[in-house]
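Chapter summary example.
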Amino acid sequence: MIFEGTVFKFGRDVDTDVIIPARYLNTTDSQELAGHVMEDIDPGFVGKLKAGDIIVAEENFGCGSSREQAPVAIKAAGVSCVVAASFARIFYRNAINIGLPIMVCPEAAREAESGDLLRVDLDRGEVTNLTKQKVYQADRFPGFMQEIVAAGGLMEKVKEKINQRPGPV
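The structure predicted for these 169 residues follows.
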């Protein structure tokens, strides 16, 4: 899976309360959540975002509460991928479970700037900053995690498995 988009750069310790503020958690509508993603850290974020753009952040992205709505809101807003120096453990797993592609790549996260054009190759574990013409090696997902992301999340992967089972004999 390859993603290409413009970078929106954030710092370290971006917590789930900033990604999707608690005041919007009275809905399960992913599009409603998407309309408020990152608004407390960048009020104009959603208006500037184009489908396929990439969030880049420093250490500990997604720290704080374990709310699954954070990666859901990011994905629903049209962000193709999140690249960070590191992710909070629960956010990392929630992102995989809902099919939001993420990649740990500290060097790319440190050197990327807002407005840069990035290409992220999940299969090869590479982040290419097309603006700076630099390639960074990243941590690759194990195969089973790549399959979950490619399917669109854990529930979609489970549905695939169920549909592949042979019927009654």
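To summarize the output: The mean pLDDT is 93.
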